[in-house]
Amino acid sequence: MSLFIVKEAERCLQCKKPMCMEGCPAHTNIPQVVQAFKENRLLEAGETLFENNPLSLVCSIVCDHEAQCTGHCVLGKKGSPIIFYEIERFISDSYLDRLKKKGVAENNGKQVAVIGAGPSGMTVAIILAKHGYNVTIFYDNDKIGGMLQYGIPDFRLNKQILERYKNVMQQMGIRFRPNTAIGESITIENLKRDGYASIFVGTGVWRPKMLGIEGETLANVHYGISYLGNPSVYQLGNNVAIIGMGNVAMDVARTALRHGSEHVTLYARSKRIAASENEVEFTRLDGAEFVFGRAIEKITQSGPVFRVAKFDENDNVTGYEEELEQVEADSVIIAVSQAPKNKLILTTEGLEGNDRGLLVIDENCMTTCEGVFSAGDVVHGSNTVVAAIHEAKKAAAGMMKYMEG
Ligand SMILES: Cc1cc2nc3c(=O)[nH]c(=O)nc-3n(C[C@H](O)[C@H](O)[C@H](O)COP(=O)(O)OP(=O)(O)OC[C@H]3O[C@@H](n4cnc5c(N)ncnc54)[C@H](O)[C@@H]3O)c2cc1C
């Protein structure tokens, strides 16, 4: 952390119509936070951030700032935009452990179950606990954070932050049931039986999408999302081929390079990269290579086999070469998106998903099952942390309206 944040705060123009705020999916009141920070009112700045976005510390680290706050700063039109996320990070980091029970309403005796401890579940739990509800979070892993814990690599997000969140949440009265998958032994019906007045489902998308090709079950093939959960248990070898060029593929490549693989290559069918510019640049800087115009046909013990695309002058794929290309690789990692698991839909009467298995919700974020609400990736598909938080705030409001009504 450098003192340049003080200079950054001084540069803020305090715009009447702050574009930075519009660019932030959580609509953080950036001018107000910067002003409080400049005037040494750090707790006030921290409270403003936390009330609007309980995971502001996480967002200050993992959001795509160039596309959001920083990218919308008017100063960026002719010069350097304000690096607000570093100011936000400093304030949120300093504020988080001082939160404690501050601002928690008197207990109202109502019980709420939150299924999933990712950004959406954490947000709902914090908001409802602050309003006096007894919140229990159920999650099928041993640590909280969801994809923050098991997807985003350590070198991008220090996992100690999530432990600090857990402490704060415990102090707010939130109870935790780790290693408890709902939809296996315990069902949503059981939760209703045991008196939970409302239930939130924030279970995300944890089922890797399969390619449906020959060789996908071989020992040298893995799924990106499974690999990121615990990279140190994999022996990938020196040459790694990654199928896909989305954000998850970038994290897989950078992690593999940090775990000793020397040649890591990402393959895409077209010339389009789905990942954000920043992630691509960091991946390049880490030493990964990018190969375009390769459509995966099958995987053998020697590596992936591709059809090689032909392009027109606009870089559109027009067809494929006749001969297949066998690429030598010790391991192949498939990173072509995720879908939700279907445990909850299969075990809960009336809970409906769409054709992609994503939960259907109404304008109050209530699912097709009375009293059961949802938000985050399990509703919208793979998205971002800040989007999950924004939607979870709406769900928490919907749940309170339901329970009070
Ligand atoms: C590798 C990777 C990198 C990413 N990088 C970024 C990034 O840099 N910036 C960004 O903004 N976004 C990033 N994302 C996306 C972001 O992490 C997700 O959009 C966000 O975590 C979604 O939050 P969520 O609460 O909906 O679900 P999740 O974070 O997926 O959390 C789901 C929770 O539900 C639990 N669960 C699932 N099923 C059950 C069940 N049946 N019973 C009990 N518990 C269950 C899980 O254990 C978990 O705790 C990344 C995603 C991945 C995969």
Q: How would you describe this protein?
A:
There is one protein chain. The protein is α/β, with parallel strands linked by helices and 405 residues long. It folds into three domains: 4-96, Orthogonal Bundle (Fumarate Reductase Iron-sulfur Protein, Chain B, domain 2), CATH 1.10.1060.10; 111-206 and 340-404, FAD/NAD(P)-binding domain (3-Layer(bba) Sandwich); 208-338, 3-Layer(bba) Sandwich (FAD/NAD(P)-binding domain), CATH 3.50.50.60. Helices cover 37% and strands 18% of the residues. It is built from 17 helices and 15 strands. Helix 3 (30-38) runs antiparallel to helix 4 (42-52) and helix 13 runs parallel beside helix 14. The chain is globular and about 70 Å long. The N and C termini lie far apart (47 Å). Bound molecules: flavin-adenine dinucleotide. The site of flavin-adenine dinucleotide has 41 residues, from helix 8, helix 9, helix 12, helix 13 and helix 15.
N/C terminus separation: 47 Å
User: Could you list the spans in which at least 5 consecutive residues all have pLDDT below 50?
Assistant: none
Q: Any idea what the CATH architecture of the largest domain is?
A: 3-Layer(bba) Sandwich
Number of strands: 15
Largest sheet: 5 strands, parallel
- Report the helical percentage: 25-40%
Q: Which ions and ligands are bound to the chains?
A: flavin-adenine dinucleotide
Rg from alpha-carbon coordinates: 23 Å
**At the first level of CATH, what is the class of the largest domain?**
Alpha Beta
CATH topology of the largest domain, by name, is: FAD/NAD(P)-binding domain
- Across the major sheet, the strand order is 3-2-1-4-15
As for the number of domains, it is 3
Q: CATH homologous superfamily of the largest domain, by name?
A: FAD/NAD(P)-binding domain
Tally of alpha and pi helices? 17
| Average predicted confidence as pLDDT | 96
